[in-house]
Amino acid sequence: MRTSSLNGCSTTATPTLAGSVRTAVANDGSLLVTDDAHGVIYRVSYSGG
After folding, report:
1. Number of domains in the chain
2. Residue 12 within a domain
3. pLDDT number for residue 28
4. How far is CA 11 from CA 8, 14, 39, in A?
């Protein structure tokens, strides 16, 4: 079983949870979350039954 979560962890001396967060829903129904402070896009999806 694969489990994961989306949280605000940081390994830097000055933690930053996120900056300028935006969300969108992809065509497959997954949630896209941007984190402009770190220059990444997270994809959150459900794969259960």
Report:
1. 1
2. no
3. 92
4. 10, 8, 16
Cβ–Cβ < 8 Å for 34, 22: yes
Kindly report the pTM of this predicted structure.
0.59
Q: What is the 3-state secondary structure (H, E, C) of 9-38?
A: CCCCCCCCCCCCCCEEECCCCCEEEEECCC
Determine how β-strand 40-44 pairs with β-strand 31-35: antiparallel
| Full pLDDT tens readout for the chain, 49 residues | 444 555 555 555 555 555 667 899 999 999 998 888 788 888 988 888 7
**Residue span of the structural domain in which 40 resides:** 19-49
Tokens linked to 9: 């962890």
Within-domain flag for 26: yes
